[in-house]
Amino acid sequence: MAVSFSFDQLKKAVAGDEIDTVLACSVDMQGRLVGKRFLAKYFVESAYDETHGCNYLLANDIDMEPVPGYKAASWSKGYGDFVMKPDLSTLRRVPWLEKTALVLCDVLDHHTHGDLPHSPRAILRKQVARLKERGYLAYFASELEFYLFNETYDSARAKHWQNLETASPYIGDYLIGITTKEEGVMRRLRNDMEAAGIPIENSKGEWGPGQEEINVRYAEVLEMADRHVILKNGAKEIAESMGKSISFMAKYNYGLAGNSSHIHNSLWSEDGKTPLFYDKNADWTLSKLGQQWAAGQLKYAKEFTWFLAPYINSYKRFQAGTFAPTKIMWSEDNRTAGFRLCGEGTKGIRMECRIGGADLNPYLAFAALIAAGLAGIDEKLELQKPFVGDAYQASRLPEIPKTLREATETLAKSKMLKTALGEEVVEHYVHTARWEQMEYDRRITDWELHRGFERY
Known about the structure:
The protein has 14 helices and 15 strands. It has helices at about 5-15, 40-45, 120-135, 155-160, 175-180, 185-195, 220-240, 290-300, 300-310, 360-380, 405-410, 415-420, 425-440, 445-450, and strands at about 20-25, 35-40, 50-55, 80-85, 90-95, 100-110, 135-150, 200-205, 210-215, 220, 245, 260-270, 330, 340, 350-355. Helix 6 (about 185-195) crosses helix 7. Its cofactor is Mg(2+). GO terms for molecular function: ATP binding; glutamine synthetase activity.
């Protein structure tokens, strides 16, 4: 880990009254931090070893509603505890909160103390172990996009999330002048994240008014997922402390660009020194291993789309002409593609998956991409020729699932993911997806009322 804040340093900081609160956090199915705030002296006395949480936290929906039908946790099983085991290598100061440190926890079975299989961090750790068995190290980086508003969360709620004032009035994609107006929040976000051990390479305006993109430096895949979830949580806290709000919704407004989370991924030698995707003599300078990895991700993209787009709203983002992909194909440098080759001709060569929205859970998304990549290697798949042109207009290319319902049923039938992640894990998240669909199907939307109240 890049964070140089050891447990011994924490104890000294607590003794010196520099730290008085420790956040012990696990990650829920939605990719949010859940956990407890400890008076720091009690954390360093005992809770550093383990604490506990209700197991419904990995069997509920985004509204914290206990969802019936899960095998792992239910009313009939009494909603008991699971163990939250702090991973002290993730310990860090939280500069935007007073005298506060944070640690991420692995979620363990209360009785066996083994990894809880459907825990997002455990799912990714399993895929990391599969990489290690083959002598591979995966480097990932996720680009996060979000909208910044001159609204508090309270004022946005009072307006029913309509007619919100964005931090800039028009598209400021790459424009320095307009993003200077947003710099109060963005500068603090970059600097506070850096101080928390999450190195931010840059931020920029995106293709929507008040829309931002923030780029975290690449890291080993588990560390990158940890950075991702802490960044999302911290960005909201920083914005709120400054009277602003941030949304990571995939598509908050029909007429504006959606929020993506492009995922860059490559394999390296286990010591992290030798790029395994670079071969100057290979087609596109992408090694045979890299081509097989990419071919696997293309072959299984429909099956793992749910891990990149887990909500009803996620599928509203896939619209032609919006820089969000609609087709499953790859190109050398083409932003209409579902997958794009970046860094061609350099040691930094990598695949960029452009399907995911900013609402994804990084542990699940990264794990799915690894599983598909390894399947491509194991099956010795051959990479098709890169697409050239406007993929939005290409009628013969395979399409990204258009709806949550389609993506869910494709996931449910995936033999590859059941083998790689475990049948019970896939079943758990298929149940999550079907609940989301059912909750939407039975609700009356503003669009229905506007269209039909008088006219039907």
